């Protein structure tokens, strides 16, 4: 039962994509409604500026439309294909503008971690600081690792699909996630935050 | 180390992506290895923190609503294949550039001619004349108004464009002016009302052409049909394009031009379109199938229309040139817009921002976002039409569950009831001289098109809809379609 509805859904999307390939603006509307937000978030996470994220959405749909006859439903889901285009756009943007690290370093949202002087349970303070440091640690990841972390943990895209987007084996994604975790733990430790301690604190309460 | 060999599997394990046998092996191993249990728990903690941090720092933003429209326009307007259909795809900017280029080339040529002056005196005057900016028939009122979109293509129109390169379709593409010459050739094949005799001063008879639409429910049709009829009831004919309704008719020195809503059946796109009366080579306006209820500006080649295109499906007002270019969101909720004679003010059906005071409102093209004035509070008032000659506004309302026509003015003067029959009357449209009204009525349970001479108040039926109706099957995008969402249009 579940499977048939899943297949049905896939068929529906295939028909929709076909209409879109044939130039039906209505089909574009539906595909846009289904995927624009995710692409926007990807652009937002990668480029960290609202207007750049908008550009990413626009460029993705324009490029996808230009290349629409190259989309092969047997190789990847339509969404995956779109995200791949979006990711490539973001990557090339970052490269082109030599902003590989700048938007992450000059991140207006993040002031340097302030000691939390407010009264409150230690657990709260600790976790707050932990997240702040974790966030900064994410910025310090290499582009390759950061990308996978964003796609998997922020976008919640399964590793299989990320593998399709990046055109590499699924195992590679897991090993990148593993490497990212090790690097993050290392950076946290450098800041005096041991996951183990926090874990204890959390469990103690 | 015992941990090492499961470490790199943790992510796959947490994603539930290990094969059953690998999973079993993994779990068995973890159960027997304290370090592994700890690492697994720590990873889960890190992942949870990571996800929370992402949400806190990045949120889950969504793209702004206008983006879809923007992309859609980019996608479906400059399609090379459609350029032939929608020649305005050549943007004003490009046209301007081409115009400038042509002028520069001409200046160059002029210079050349001047240098060669004594040798070739005859070629110079002709060249300079074309450089003057293509003064077509400047008698038409609308030519003056649409400065950019009209002037630039026409400047590029004459023969000198050939020198600017043959990849440009400027010559073939009529300008954004719907009355451009190329289509007139085909339009001439259709009967028009231009040859109509002048009205006799003695017995007043309505003149001009009325456009209206009705759904033909016959089994072999089942489409909207757009009708054109002379205001005196003669020369009834069908517009060649099926599946279109909500017409707005405009008359210029070069003939009639129609804006209408196309429902995507049988072959037209779902959008507002404009074309001449042959229905050939329509231009797309808006591009959303929720776009509706167009009205022409009386002073220029401009449309105002209403649409439910935004995702909240609330009616909003938009304006663009008659070819769909330079579209602008008027940032005002409302429907059924109608231009005042000055072409700047609009009457529309709407509510205040709190949604409490509904009725007829007026605003201007320039300040639609900043202000709107209430004309008349009546949440049943619909389908207003502003007189083409003065401040009077006609509309329909049903205070006693009986739709009738009412007359007020832009200051909201005490409404005057114009029809009294127990039948439904609605969709009023002014005649171009402001002396007559066209409307529909279902007297005797048959829909018909009527005209009323306002000074006398006498009405006459000029067309019987027969089996056609106003309540089509559910075609409208979001609400059940109502007959009062249709519209009539009366033009010279």
Characterize the structure shown.
The complex is a heterodimer of chains A (205) and B (492). Chain A is mainly α and 205 residues long. Chain A has ten helices and no strands. Chain A folds into two domains: 109 residues, Orthogonal Bundle (Rna Polymerase Sigma Factor, Chain: A), CATH 1.10.1740.10; 92 residues, Arc Repressor Mutant, subunit A (Orthogonal Bundle). The N terminus of chain A is likely disordered. Chain B has 492 residues and is an alpha+beta fold. Chain B has a four-stranded antiparallel sheet, with no helix packed on it. In chain B, a hairpin with a 6-residue loop joins strand 2 and strand 3. About 23% of the residues of chain B have low confidence. Classes of the chains: A mainly alpha (205), B alpha+beta (492). The interface between A and B is large, with 49 and 46 residues.
Query: How many extended strands of chain A?
Result: 0
H/I helix tally of chain A:
10
Morphology of chain A: elongated
Radius of gyration of chain A: 20 Å
Oligomer kind: heterodimer
Largest interface (CB within 8 Å) is between: A-B, 49 and 46 residues
Helical content of chain B, roughly? 10-25%
The CATH class designation of the largest domain in chain A is Mainly Alpha
Residues in helix, % of chain A: over 70%
Largest sheet of chain A: none
Mean of the pLDDT scores of chain B? 76
């Amino acid at each position: 039962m579940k499977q048939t509805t899943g297949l049905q859904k896939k068929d529906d999307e295939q028909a929709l994509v076909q209409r879109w390939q044939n130039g039906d603006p209505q089909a574009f509307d539906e595909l846009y409604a289904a995927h624009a937000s995710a692409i926007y978030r990807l652009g937002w996470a990668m480029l960290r500026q609202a207007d750049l994220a908008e550009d990413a959405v626009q460029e993705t749909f324009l490029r996808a439309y230009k290349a629409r006859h190259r989309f092969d439903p047997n190789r990847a889901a339509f969404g995956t294909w779109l995200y791949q285009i979006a990711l490539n756009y973001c990557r090339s943007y970052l490269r082109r503008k030599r902003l590989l690290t700048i938007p992450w370093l000059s991140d207006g949202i993040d002031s340097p971690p302030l000691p939390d002087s407010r009264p409150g349970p230690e657990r709260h303070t600790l976790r707050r600081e932990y997240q702040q440091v974790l966030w900064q640690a994410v910025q310090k990841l290499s582009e390759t690792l950061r990308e996978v972390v964003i796609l998997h943990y922020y976008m919640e895209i399964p590793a299989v699909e990320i593998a399709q987007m990046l055109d590499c084996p699924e195992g590679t994604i897991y090993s990148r996630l593993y490497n990212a975790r090790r690097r993050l733990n290392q950076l946290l430790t450098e800041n005096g935050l041991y996951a183990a301690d926090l874990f204890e604190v959390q469990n103690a309460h | 180390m015992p941990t090492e060999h499961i470490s790199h599997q943790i992510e796959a394990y947490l994603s539930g992506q290990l094969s059953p046998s690998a999973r079993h092996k993994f779990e068995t191993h973890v159960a027997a290895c304290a370090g592994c249990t700890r690492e697994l728990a720590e990873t889960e903690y890190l992942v949870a923190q990571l996800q929370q941090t992402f949400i806190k720092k990045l949120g889950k933003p969504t793209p702004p609503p206008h983006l879809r429209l923007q992309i859609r326009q980019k996608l479906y307007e400059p399609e090379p294949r459609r350029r032939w259909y929608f020649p305005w795809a050549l943007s004003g900017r490009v046209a301007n550039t081409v115009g400038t280029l042509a002028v520069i080339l001409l200046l160059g040529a002029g210079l050349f001619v001047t240098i060669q002056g004594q040798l070739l005196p005859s070629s110079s005057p002709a060249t300079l004349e074309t450089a003057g900016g293509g003064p077509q028939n400047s008698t038409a009122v609308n030519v003056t108004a649409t400065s950019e979109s009209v002037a630039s293509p026409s400047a590029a129109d004459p023969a000198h464009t050939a020198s600017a390169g043959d990849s440009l379709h400027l010559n073939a593409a009529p300008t954004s002016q719907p009355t451009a010459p190329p289509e007139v050739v085909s339009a001439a094949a259709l009967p028009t009302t231009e040859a109509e005799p002048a009205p006799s001063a003695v017995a007043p008879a309505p003149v001009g052409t009325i456009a209206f639409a009705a759904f033909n429910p016959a089994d072999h049709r089942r489409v909207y049909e757009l009708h054109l009829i002379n205001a005196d009831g003669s020369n009834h004919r069908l517009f060649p394009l099926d599946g279109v309704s909500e017409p707005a008719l405009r008359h210029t020195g070069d003939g009639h031009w129609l804006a209408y809503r196309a429902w995507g059946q049988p072959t037209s796109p779902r959008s507002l379109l404009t074309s001449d009366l042959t229905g050939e080579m329509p231009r797309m306006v808006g591009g959303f199938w929720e776009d509706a209820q167009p009205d022409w500006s009386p002073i220029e080649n401009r449309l105002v229309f209403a649409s439910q295109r935004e995702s909240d499906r609330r009616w909003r007002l938009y304006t663009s040139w008659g070819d769909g270019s330079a579209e602008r969101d008027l940032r005002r909720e409302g429907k059924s817009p109608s231009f005042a004679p000055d072409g700047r003010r609009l009457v529309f059906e709407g509510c205040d921002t709190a949604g409490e005071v509904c009725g007829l409102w007026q605003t201007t093209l320039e300040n639609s976002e900043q202000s709107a004035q209430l004309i008349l509070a009546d949440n049943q008032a619909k389908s207003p039409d502003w007189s083409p000659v003065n401040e009077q506004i006609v509309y329909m309302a049903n205070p006693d569950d009986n739709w009738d026509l009412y007359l007020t003015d832009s200051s909201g003067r005490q409404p005057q009831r114009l029809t009294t029959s127990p039948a439904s009357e609605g969709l009023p449209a002014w005649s171009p001289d402001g002396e007559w009204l066209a409307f529909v009525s279902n007297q005797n349970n048959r829909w018909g098109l009527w005209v009323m001479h306002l000074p006398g108040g006498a009405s006459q039926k000029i067309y019987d809809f027969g089996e056609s109706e106003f309540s089509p099957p559910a075609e409208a995008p979001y609400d059940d379609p109502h007959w009062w969402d249709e519209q009539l249009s009366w033009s010279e």
